[in-house]
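Duplicate of earlier report; Sialate O-acetylesterase input re-posted below.
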Amino acid sequence: MKGFKWSALLLSLMAIQTALADVRVSNVFGSHMVLQRRKPVPVWGWADPGEKVTVSFNSQTKAIKAGKDGKWTISLDPMEAGGPYQMTVAGKKNSVSFDDVLLGEVWVCSGQSNMEWQLQSAVNGKEEVKAANYPNIRHLMVKKAISLTPKDDIEGTWTVCSPQTASIYTAVGYYFARQLQKQLNVPIGLINTTWGGTHSETWTSRDALSQTDEFRTVASKLPASYEEVIQAGKERTRLLMEKQQGGLPTAAEERTWSDPALNTDHWKSMGMPGDWEWGGLPTLDGVVWFRREVVIPDDATLKKMTLRFGSVDDKDSTFVNGQLVGSSKGLLPRAYAIPDGLLKPGRNIIAVRVVDEAGAGGLAGKPEDVKLSGENLDIPLAGQWKYRVATVFPSSFNPGPNTYATQLFNAMLNPLIPYAIEGAIWYQGESNAGRAYQYRKAFPLMIQDWRKRWGRDFPFLFVQLASFNSANGDSKHGSSWAELREAQTLTLQLPNTGMAVTSDIGESKDIHPKNKLDVGNRLAAEAMRVAYAGTAKGETALGDASRGPMFGSMRVDGNRAIVTFQNVGTGLMVKDRYGYLKGFEVAGADQKFYYAKAEIQANTVVVHADSVSNPVAVRYGWADDNGDVNLYNKESFPAVPFRTDSWKGITEATKFGDQ
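Output:
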């Protein structure tokens, strides 16, 4: 009987022990991480309700009991930079240890694809990766995820910067960290939470959106479940197909789409190469045909002809004058040999059947790669192509990060809070350019939302949009990209903000400029100004010069407009071998802008145009593709694009959901 009692007691104790959950720490923490120096360091996780949890780190040991919900948080006292250290988190049943932990500066890197852009794909990226031996730079890649409600954890792993790991780092973040470490001589930690092509509203919380008249309706329409999202996606896609092309074709109809005699007057058009999600088919996965007429001169030599169009996302079957000339899968460049005699002088038809199974779709190469070429013939094919949708895959109805607001805040930002950070760097805005005026409210709202949740006005640094010929926008036709840059400049009214100007280092035909080195270095200069002024290294910083010359005032003297600037540093300068200033325009009361002659006089710029006798307004760099701008201060920071007028913009009436 006694043996039975002891056995029962032993089994009972074993059952209690088994019932105890392992103490668990948020996945934001891990071996090789960097913790923020000189600030309290929250450490948090989960255990059984009421369970005692102890955290030991760098001569500190603190304990707390988990709450009724099993959540626990311990705040370590501020510490100086150093390491490596070990952190141990212990509960009743188990303990968790993290090795090689450093104390230094931690920055969140967020935004869309230009922040996500990997080091290996930047200018000289492969060489940079080979030389990336920076063991005091650490990187946490947050795995992509979406959620309609706030999540409490992420998936991700800290890594040490080395040639084996650095290839997938955020290129902007890497160069930013490298420059900061050089100046501060402390470890730098980067938390990379990015997603290409995303709007700022998906990075903003529901609570923040609900508190504004501008976005209250957006917040109120958030669905309760992804089942609702999928049903809404089906209906949205059905309506799109009905509107664009009267519905989907039968299989028999599709088989005629390679026929050069087919009448395509009722087909829609979009620019190729490009992502069809931006060209008029948002969220669509499926089969889309593209057709293009090519007129070949009568005297052309049509032997050894090749059709090239870079890569395709994901698969293609390509026809010339109704004959299949090639089919491939994946992002490798296409180069299809055309049988002699298939092409003829005059009208020819190229038809490409594209199958996209997920994400972006379309001809994905560079514009210069899309061409029909031979021994003495080179016909560019980039531009407008006719298109028609043949099939819609069910994955089209799945939610994406922009389908509804708040989803990336919930899944990829909220779980990071309250990890101790110094600040954030941000590169985004391209996806909001069509609603640039609304970005004046959306962007500051997001920054203030993040700061409120972290509990302090931490430094927030961002990249102004680089030059890119989005839609030939300029002062004559209006420019959404110029208006977005203006919204970004206005955001500098928030405290502890900084902006890196990049108009001079963009690429007209590529929304992803490969020069990330200058972007990172300019952000680092702003970090020294905003976050580290007054430190030992900050004393030798550039003052306000890192902000770049910014419009101050304008006065008119006869037919000349005289513009003064702030943040001129040791003076203004022009980067041009002949000394000519570019990018300035001037207008009279008729609001018609003319390219202007401009020259530096002391710390002012004098602007005039022969066609404008009474100047009223001056603009600088006011275009989608504004890469010709060349005004700098002598510290080599570019001037901020500006306008002196407040005339009506082209995006004033466009709101969230209209794009």
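The two ends are 78 Å apart (CA to CA).

Merging into the original ticket.
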